[in-house]
Design goal:
With 173 residues, the protein is mainly alpha-helical. The protein has ten helices and no strands. The longest helix has 24 residues.
Length: 173
């Protein structure tokens, strides 16, 4: 609240600071037009700060007079703007399980991954993101090791078809 009441004092401090900056700029050969732009910017910053303090409602939990303990949930701002200040929390399962797919920066591989069935992507996620062995994946998916092995061979062959030649050469495929 003191900032609003002391605008004249803060403006005087800003003008003194600007005088020092202007002197340095003039020594360095900065044009008067640019020096004036600096002054306008400093004045805009001062006025924006003043505007912020004038129009921002402070939250002081100690102002509640009903004798209850201080509680942030009792803020008048939350009553008035609660819906605009709230967001829907994403489910944790939405966060990271398949995030490794977004990190693929080779377009051909990214397109290939997006063309796969959900089961195949889940299996690859278990292998890539969770670092499971093929035998562990078979247990999780309740399939035989040989079925997982055949599926992996099929996926490798389809991936080899879409890989760029430079990447095939680098990998020795």
């Amino acid at each position: 609240m003191g900032y609003i009441n002391n605008y004249g004092y803060n403006r005087k401090k800003m003008e003194i600071e600007f005088t020092k900056i202007a002197a340095i700029c003039r020594e360095d050969g900065v044009s008067e037009e640019n020096i004036e732009a600096i002054h306008r910017q400093m004045l805009d910053d001062l006025n924006n700060e003043r505007r912020f303090y004038r129009h921002t409602q402070p939250y002081d939990g100690m102002r509640f007079t009903d004798g209850d303990e201080v509680d942030e949930g009792r803020s008048p701002l939350l009553d008035k703007f609660g819906e605009r200040l709230s967001v829907q929390q994403a489910e944790i399962c939405e966060w990271g399980k398949m995030a490794w797919i977004d990190d693929i920066d080779t377009p051909e591989i990214a397109v290939w991954l997006k063309s796969l069935k959900e089961d195949d992507i889940f299996m690859l996620t278990l292998l890539v993101a969770d670092g499971m062995k093929q035998r562990e994946v078979a247990k999780v998916l309740e399939k035989h090791d040989s079925a997982i092995s055949r599926k992996m061979k099929r996926l490798r062959e389809s991936l080899t078809k879409v890989l760029p030649e430079a990447l095939k050469n680098r990998l020795g495929i």
